[in-house]
Write a structure and sequence with these properties.
Layout: E1 7-13, H1 17-29, E2 35-38, H2 47-50, H3 62-65, H4 81-94, E3 101-102, E4 105-113, E5 118-125, E6 130-141, E7 165-166, E8 182-186, H5 190-200, E9 205-210, E10 216-219, H6 224-229, H7 235-259, H8 261-276, H9 282-285, E11 298-301, H10 304-310, E12 314-318, E13 321-324, E14 328-331, E15 336-338, E16 341-344, E17 357-360, E18 363-364, E19 372-373, E20 377-378, E21 384-386, H11 395-416, E22 421-423, E23 433-434, H12 441-444, E24 452-453, H13 465-474, E25 482-484
Parallel strand pairs: 1-2, 1-6, 2-3, 4-17, 6-21, 7-16, 8-9, 8-16, 9-12, 10-11
Antiparallel strand pairs: 4-5, 5-6, 13-14, 14-15, 17-18, 19-20, 22-25, 23-24
Helix pairs in contact: 1-11, 5-10, 7-8, 11-13
């Protein structure tokens, strides 16, 4: 960062996995372009610095969650939060990004002026307690798609009556001692299936309380092919081979789930039955009402959740909550679950652009009324990109493609002397379907607040890495929709 400098060619918002990757691509693939990274929090890492609950890990393998340009070298393919933070820290050091990141800088508003071909950012400066402004030609949002300040917490009757501890995964108490305690984890999503086996190692007992089951599949903690290839091949080559293999397998699994939902549902449930044995009530607790990939599938490394259940360290209850009591949770069935600690793993609150307000030539932009162009920017918003990763594959696969495309776009503008690019969508052609195509509660609650997608390209979202690779790497930039001036 150059102190006192008010203008940058590019400003990246967010120093998580997307923002750090964007900066690396920008440095390598564009020339003499000034940029800075604004991070609202005190550390790099985004998701991986925010969440500190027991067992925090990725449910995507690191051969696809890792960057295309930095091989993952560790033995475990499913990595814990600290290992991912270490990987991101190495990336920052290797690409000399440390001085490019400005911490505790929360962007409150971005205002575009076509006359000046500039964004003006209004920023809350956490280091001074005041407000400052920065200007840039191109704004690259890498702030994720959920609210970092607040997770989703339903209104539970009697919530304040509970005499024990309540630990929301997004605000985990650093001093929480759960050894020898009775724990109830509310939820059955990715967070719940991570927390339950981790806490079960030392808790007296952990109960996973769910309203309805989720598809859960075990996958190996280590990738045998990757660890074998590294013995004979350079790291970069082994990484590329395994990355390609994992991308193709993930795409195949998703495609089969959509094409043959009944068969895939049957197979997923059979795998759970194989893990838990004939005495476990899989029909009640692990047979979802929806089809595979109508919601995101949960992965558990080396069947750790199933092992905790088999060892009686944990259990599953499928029921609805009536109310909290002083000593636990009373269920609709009349049963009461006794608890010393309750963990409401009840999900995220989606938030577009980190809560930042956007204005174009004095006109307020309502994100939920825009259409996403090529999966990386918004209709009628100039010189702007927003990284949103895949829901059916690793986030970073899409983040890498987005950063590559932005670099292509910036280089094209330099070559032709353009200062402005804007995807123009005619009024009245807006579709009503959101860009995130899952029935999960956290997406349905926010469907009016996230961008829409159109009926056809370039306004349609692929949700397919190979299709996006072809479109974003090889398609013409001046496609008649993206207007340059």
């Amino acid at each position: 960062m150059a102190d006192g400098q008010e203008y940058f060619d590019v400003i990246i918002v967010g120093a998580g996995i997307s923002g750090i990757g964007a900066a690396c691509h920008l440095q390598k693939k564009t020339k003499n372009r000034s940029y800075t990274i604004l991070e609202g929090r005190e550390n790099i890492g985004g998701t991986w610095d925010l969440f500190r609950y027991p067992g925090i890990r990725s449910d995507s393998d690191m051969y696809t969650l890792g960057y295309s340009f930095k091989p993952w070298k560790e033995g475990e393919a499913i990595a814990d939060g600290d290992s991912i933070l270490k990987y991101l820290g190495e990336t920052v050091e290797e690409h000399n990004l440390k001085d490019k990141i400005q911490f505790q800088q929360r962007v409150e508003k971005a205002s575009w002026s076509t006359e000046n071909a500039q964004w003006t950012l209004t920023i809350s400066d956490g280091t001074t307690g005041g407000t400052r402004t920065l200007r840039c030609n191109y704004l690259f949002m890498c702030s994720g798609y959920y609210n970092y300040e607040q997770g989703y917490l339903p209104e539970f009757e009697g919530f304040d009556d509970f005499a024990g501890s309540i630990a929301h995964p997004q605000h985990w108490p650093t001093d929480l001692d759960y050894a020898g305690k009775k724990v109830v984890v509310i939820g059955s999503g990715a967070t719940a299936v991570t927390v339950v086996p981790a806490m079960a190692e030392t808790a007296e007992h952990v109960t996973m309380l769910q309203r309805s089951p989720t598809y859960i599949a075990s996958r190996p903690q280590e990738d045998a092919l990757a660890n074998g290839l590294r013995k004979f091949l350079p790291n970069w080559l082994a990484y590329k081979i395994v990355r390609t293999k994992n991308v193709l397998l993930t795409m195949l699994f998703f495609s089969l789930s959509k094409k043959y939902p009944k068969g895939m549902k049957k197979r997923l449930i059979e795998l759970v039955e194989k893990e838990l044995g004939p005495d476990f009530d899989v029909k009640t607790h692990f047979t979802p009402r929806y089809n595979p990939w109508d919601q995101r599938l949960c992965a558990v490394p080396d069947a750790d959740l199933f092992e905790a259940l088999k060892q009686k360290k944990a259990s599953v209850v499928t029921d609805h909550i009536d109310r909290f009591t002083e000593t636990g949770i009373k269920l609709k069935s009349g049963e009461e679950l006794m608890a010393d600690i309750i963990v409401p793993a009840t999900g995220l609150k989606l938030q577009s652009l980190g809560g930042m307000a956007v204005e174009v030539d004095g006109r307020d932009i309502v994100v939920g009324e825009t259409t996403n162009y090529k999966g990386f920017t918004l209709s009628n918003v100039p010189n702007f990109a927003w990284t949103v990763g895949y829901t059916n594959a690793s986030w970073t696969l899409k983040a890498d493609l987005t950063s590559n495309y932005v670099c292509r776009l910036l280089n094209h503008m330099d070559k032709h002397g353009y200062k402005v690019c804007v995807p123009q969508l005619e009024e009245g052609t807006l579709d009503t379907s959101p860009i995130l195509n899952l029935s999960s509660g956290y997406i349905q609650r926010a469907k009016d607040e996230i961008p829409k997608q159109g009926q056809a390209q370039p306004w349609r979202i692929h949700h397919n890495y190979v299709a996006d690779l072809l479109h974003l790497k090889f398609e013409r930039l001046d496609d008649g929709v993206m207007q340059f001036s």
